[in-house]
Design brief:
Length: about 350
């Protein structure tokens, strides 16, 4: 079996590394293609060292740009590689323009496409990531779903074949990295277990609207009167705070620079509650056994809302949600598998080839 994997962003490299480890165990040939959409492979971080992420065999260097132009450039270059290599399967990850471009090339060339993280759905339906997810799912032969809700989403859309509940490869990663989590920041600032709230806000719909950003910071101010609010501030958020003259609203918060994955997970593990608009962090909080208030109109990880573990909330109601979340008893379920998603995916592919 010959695998051709296409990635284009840092989270996709990480997910691919989980599968690559399983391919190596079985001596399966894998060729890695990097679209160059928005990640510098040479950037040094812990994932490359710990996960032994390998250098791409091909780099398309497409860079950023309008959606249509980017997808078109990736398709043209990637198709040439696929024709040259003629793999048995093409693997794509997540919901980026790279994902969609790779899936379309595979479908047109009649080469089976495997979509890792299939079946996620989120409103509004016209958001670019949602369009990429839906189209990719409907042209893929193998749909590897991180949760049973993702499976149901696909069935509700009339997809009948190739659906597999494998678990979430990011849970595999969490378990693999857990022993390396960094608690230096927790110790540096004298933060005791569960005596602080961890907050991250960076989405454009929250930061680029001065009213929303002001509401969020006002709510965090309220919370900080009773408990420390640790706020690793994203560059976009910091820029908007300055632009909208909201500096006075962050004086009571423990504002720190953005931190790496291991340090962030250390902060999550010791926190009381997480407040975030990050797609990944709301799920990682669950992995760490922490509840999250999700400051978004909708989330792709709806199972965490349905089981009452996390709460979706508007910017102006965050402090009320913090009080409410402790009163809500969740229906805890291991919705993302047992930490063997990578193994499950490769096992399914091996049975087919």
């Amino acid at each position: 079996m010959k695998i051709l994997s296409l990635v284009g962003a840092r989270p996709q490299f990480i997910k691919e590394a989980v599968l690559h480890e399983e391919f190596q165990k079985r001596s399966i040939k894998e060729i890695l293609v990097h679209s160059g959409q928005h990640y510098d492979f040479n950037m040094s971080d812990v994932f490359f060292k710990v996960l032994n992420i390998h250098k791409p065999d091909y780099n398309l260097n497409v860079g950023s740009g309008p959606h249509g132009k980017m997808i078109g450039k990736i398709m043209i270059s990637f198709e040439e590689i696929v024709v040259k290599e003629m793999p048995d399967i093409i693997i794509v990850y997540g919901d980026t323009n790279t994902t969609l471009a790779g899936a379309l090339v595979g479908a047109k060339l009649k080469i089976p496409v495997a979509h890792v993280e299939a079946g996620l759905r989120q409103k509004p339906k016209d958001m670019p990531e949602e369009i990429n997810r839906v189209v990719t799912d409907h042209v893929s032969s193998y749909l590897f779903c991180p949760s049973k809700l993702a499976v149901e989403n696909l069935k509700n859309e009339g997809v009948k074949n190739g659906i597999y509940f494998t678990g979430d490869v990011m849970y595999d990663l969490f378990l693999k990295m857990e022993s390396l989590f960094n608690f230096d920041i927790v110790e540096k600032f004298g933060l005791s277990n569960k005596d602080y709230v961890l907050c991250t806000i960076h989405r454009d719909f929250n930061t680029d609207d001065p009213r929303k950003l002001s509401s969020i910071l006002t709510e965090l101010e309220k919370i900080s009167k009773d408990i420390t609010v640790v706020f690793p501030m994203h560059p976009r958020t910091r820029k908007r705070v300055e632009e909208f003259s909201l500096e006075s609203k962050i004086k009571s918060l423990m504002v720190i620079d953005p931190v790496d994955y291991l340090s962030m997970m250390g902060l999550v593990k010791n926190s009381k509650v997480v407040i975030t608009d990050s797609g990944g962090l709301q799920k990682e909080a669950f992995f760490a056994g922490k509840r999250a208030i999700v400051v978004m109109p909708d989330t792709a990880w709806r199972e965490l809302i349905e089981m009452k573990w996390n709460i979706l909330e508007n910017p102006e109601n965050i402090s009320k949600a913090l009080l409410k979340i402790s009163e809500i008893k969740p229906e805890i379920e291991n919705v993302y598998g047992n930490g063997k998603a990578g193994e499950n995916i490769v096992e399914i592919l091996c049975k087919q080839y």
